[in-house]
Design goal:
The protein is built from ten helices and ten strands. It is an alpha/beta fold. α4 (98-107) packs across α9.
Length: 278
């Protein structure tokens, strides 16, 4: 199964045995939107609600931290998702939250996971079938997995500010990256490059071609042959960059999960400002 599937493909296969569709919609707190209520109002037939907003390790010192292996197993089991199921993720979110869900599932060893190209917005624009109400899932036992994706800590990013063995790529908009007045940001991690995550998508919300994605990364000053760590505000849109890198042929990039929420709140971490890497 490809990492990206079309609405046409999903319409033909969403009832296949062993295929699970998960709504991974999550909205920013100030959006005024409720992802669960929107799911109840309309969703792809048979879809289950992942509740990505609560899929975090609240006990961690890292803001919005990835769930623990135990939490992952509990959530998958409650949703009736098995370790060998094929998973299709979609969202209806301005921050393309399905990419965060894909990183989490991939991190914990799910082998066949894909994102619906264009998300729920494209599905509805094509007037495809939807249903309402809450999903009904039969809980199963899911084995506790071992993490496998590269996740960087604040200490590792701090060390990287000195040796810069890894390129840090920031997914936030240019105002926050540069620390413009009124942006609510002090700037960025020293040495980081900037590529707003929205640049990886076409106007209709579908993903750009691999060649176009590579051009975006290279245009941001990123060397795709060297190690890359992605960052953003909370670890969400950094995963959009990771998925874009995946589609562009680079599957070994890492995530700084704490991102700016962790880095910016620590008075002892260095900060750079301006539009160019500090």
């Amino acid at each position: 199964m490809d990492r990206l599937v079309s609405t046409r493909w999903l319409a033909e296969h969403h009832r296949d045995a062993g295929l699970v569709v998960l709504d991974a919609t999550m909205h920013l707190p100030d959006s005024g939107r409720d992802a669960r209520e929107e799911f109840r109002a309309a969703h792809i037939p048979g879809a289950r609600f992942l509740d990505l907003a609560s899929f975090v390790d609240e006990a961690s010192d890292v803001p919005k931290a990835l769930p623990t292996p135990d939490q992952f197993a509990e959530r998958m089991g409650a949703l009736g998702v098995g370790p060998t199921d094929r998973i299709i993720l979609y969202d209806d979110s301005a921050i393309r939250s399905a990419a965060r869900a894909l990183f989490i599932l991939d991190h914990f060893g799910m082998e066949e996971v894909a994102i619906l190209d264009g998300g729920f917005a494209k599905w509805r624009a094509e007037e495809r079938e939807t249903e309402s109400g809450s999903e009904v899932s039969q809980a199963i036992a899911f084995p506790v997995p071992s993490p496998r994706r590269e996740v960087r800590s604040k200490a590792e990013i701090l060390a990287n500010c000195e040796h810069r063995a890894e390129q840090v790529l920031d997914a936030r908009d240019s105002a926050r990256f540069s620390g413009e007045e009124g942006s609510g940001s002090q700037g960025h991690i020293p040495g980081a490059a900037n590529l707003h995550f929205a640049r990886l998508l076409n106007e209709d919300g579908t993903w750009k071609s691999p060649d176009a994605l590579r051009a975006e990364f290279e245009g941001a000053g990123v060397d795709l042959e060297r190690p890359i760590v992605t960052s953003c505000n909370s670890g969400m849109t950094a995963c959009v960059l990771l998925f874009g890198l995946d589609l562009a042929g680079k599957q070994d990039a890492a995530l700084y999960d704490g991102s700016w929420l962790e880095w910016g709140s620590d008075p002892d971490t260095p900060k750079a400002s301006g539009a160019k890497p500090g």
